[in-house]
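Hi all, long-time lurker, first post. I run a small reading group and we've been trying to get comfortable going from sequence to structure in the token notation. Rather than ask abstract questions, I figured I'd post a concrete chain and ask someone more experienced to write out its structure so we can walk through it together at our next meeting. Sequence below, copied exactly:
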Amino acid sequence: MSGRRRLDWLGLTPEPERELPVAVAALRASSPASPSPPPGARAPAGKTPGESPGETPVEPAATELAAAERRRVERLVLRGSRHGWLRYLAEVTDLVTSVAEGSRPGDRAAALLAAEVVLDHHRMLIGLPGAGYGRTAEDRTALENAVRTLRTPTRTGGSR
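-- Answer (accepted) --
Happy to help. Here is the structure in token form:
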């Protein structure tokens, strides 16, 4: 190959670009029910967040987190490298496995979606040249375990 950059990793699947930003933003939030507002976020003039009936300050924060994650993914796809992309997906894998293990609070549905998307991506790496498939072997195993765990309903409330 010449000195040109390899871009074959970009053609695997569009799902990570479409589905990961919202799911990852939910996982990055401090808790699934009440993410903290982004730094510098302000309420409308003369109002306190949540002051009006039906007003929820969580939605703008969640929207802002998702937009920031979408920008990050866009930068990786447009200007990044295969190595940087796999590093990002490894970070997502860490978030997912932490939620699955219970060592981090998080939205289990978002974790399951992210796990399935990244796992599918990593499985398709077998068709590309290079060491990507081998490099993601541990992550594939961790994601397979996380998917099994996250698909298992949790017991809440009283016992039978």
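A couple of things your group might point at:
The CA atoms of residues 74 and 116 lie 20 Å apart.
The chain is about 60% helix and 0% strand.
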